[in-house]
């Protein structure tokens, strides 16, 4: 078949209920924060424009009291799990370091 007539299911396999994607994409994580603050929200993650107390998208068991530092420590100790979105971001938008450790 020509390039235009390739099988549309080439990177999929059948699992009795439909098709599952098999091709994996490798993306380099973006280390830069979009929001210029150090807030954390249990439902939305680390790079957010609001604190947990001001969240409009609260998920079940949302914790309003947790700080960014507490969230990192609790996740590190496997005592608690919240949203990890943006956890790896350790640079401001201009590329300067935030000063926060992400290990």
Structure keywords:
103 residues; little secondary structure; 9% helix; globular
Major beta sheet, strand line-up: 1-2
Order of helices and strands: EEH
Roughly how much helix do the residues carry, as a percent range? under 10%
**What sort of overall outline do the alpha carbons produce when their principal axes are compared?**
globular
Number of β-strand runs = 2
Any low-confidence stretches, pLDDT <50, length ≥5? none
Work out the radius of gyration. Answer: 19 Å
What can be said about the biggest beta sheet?
Answer: 2 strands, antiparallel
| Average residue-wise pLDDT | 80
Strand content: 5-15%
Structural notes for this entry:
With 103 residues, the protein is largely without helices or strands. The chain has one helix spanning 68-76, and strands spanning 12-14, 19-21. The longest helix is centred in the last third of the chain and has 9 residues, at 68-76. The radius of gyration is 19 Å and the shape is globular. It has a two-stranded antiparallel sheet.
């Amino acid at each position: 078949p020509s390039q235009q007539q390739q099988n549309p299911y080439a990177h999929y396999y059948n699992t009795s209920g439909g098709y599952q994607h098999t091709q994996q994409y490798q993306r380099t994580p973006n280390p830069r924060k979009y929001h210029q603050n150090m807030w954390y929200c249990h439902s939305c993650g680390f790079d957010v424009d609001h604190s947990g107390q001001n969240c409009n998208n609260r998920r079940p068991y949302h914790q309003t009291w947790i700080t960014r530092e507490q969230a990192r420590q609790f996740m590190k100790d496997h005592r608690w799990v919240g949203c990890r979105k943006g956890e790896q971001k350790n640079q401001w938008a201009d590329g300067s370091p935030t000063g926060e450790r992400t290990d």
